[in-house]
């Protein structure tokens, strides 16, 4: 599951018993060698799917971590790109990998930006927000976008009920619930709290118009549905809407 460059088992235990912020500080220098980093094929597919939705000027990577998503912003945006995260350790790694980006340490539930961004993206971070907090997160992103701005992120199809991945995610979430009852500080990371219908409703409540685009390069499932969709949430204020490629 992990490459030799990845974290040791004791390091993962220390992370799991820490807060989310401190846990990622501990994991930062080995994070890119774990399966938790968004794969390059997903990043490349999102960049390709965003291309016909532009042009975009400035871009924001929400919960940027070590900065994998900043490459997507660089390909999609003609102007400056900014990454925001609350882990100083993850930002230090992002700064080494992307010296040209502006990196800001802040809580995603209290973003310190005026409404200046044309595009916001996020990769792999939503499991750190309980459903109630997701509403606040979306409201903060909405407030950081200029009129007509776009918030886009990939949303993989859920595993088939009863499959091995289904039970793996169910078991992980159950273990985290037990951990957070028995141990403080909590470590919020759940895989089954970000369902498409709920996400769409929360984005709409935050003021977005929402479209779903298939990420075709990531393929389809046996029933013909896409393995991954790009959620495209548009803030009102500019003519035009995303078109399905």
Automatic annotation (TrEMBL):
InterPro entries per the UniProt record, alphabetical: Methyltransf_25, Methyltransf_Superfamily, SAM-dependent_MTases_sf
Origin superkingdom: Bacteria
Keywords assigned: Methyltransferase, Transferase
Keyword Oxidoreductase among record annotations: no
A Pfam family assignment: Methyltransf_25
Molecular functions (GO terms): methyltransferase activity
Gene3D superfamilies: Vaccinia Virus protein VP39 (3.40.50.150)
Residue span(s) of domain Methyltransferase: 60-149
Any one GO biological process: methylation
Protein's name in the database: Methyltransferase
């Amino acid at each position: 599951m992990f490459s030799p460059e990845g974290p040791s088992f004791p390091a993962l235990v220390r992370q799991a018993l820490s807060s989310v912020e401190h846990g990622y500080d501990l994991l930062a220098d080995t994070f890119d060698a774990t399966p938790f980093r968004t794969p390059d094929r997903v990043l490349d597919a999102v960049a390709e799917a965003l291309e016909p939705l532009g042009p975009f000027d400035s871009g924001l990577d929400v919960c940027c971590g070590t900065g994998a998503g900043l490459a997507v912003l660089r390909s999609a945006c003609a102007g400056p790109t900014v990454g925001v995260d609350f882990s100083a350790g993850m930002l230090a790694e992002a700064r080494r990998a992307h010296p040209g980006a502006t990196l800001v340490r802040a809580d995603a539930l209290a973003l310190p930006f005026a409404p200046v961004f044309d595009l916001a993206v996020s990769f792999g971070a939503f499991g750190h927000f309980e459903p109630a907090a997701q509403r606040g997160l979306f409201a903060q992103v909405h407030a950081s976008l200029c009129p007509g701005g776009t918030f886009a992120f990939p949303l993989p199809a859920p595993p088939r009920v009863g499959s091995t991945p289904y039970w793996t995610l169910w078991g992980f979430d159950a273990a985290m619930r037990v951990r957070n009852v028995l141990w403080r500080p909590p470590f919020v990371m759940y895989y089954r709290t970000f369902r498409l219908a709920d996400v769409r409703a929360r984005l709409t409540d935050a003021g977005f118009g929402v479209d779903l685009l298939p990420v075709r390069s990531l393929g389809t499932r046996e029933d013909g549905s896409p393995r991954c969709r790009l959620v495209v949430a548009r803030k009102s204020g500019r003519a035009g809407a995303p078109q399905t490629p």
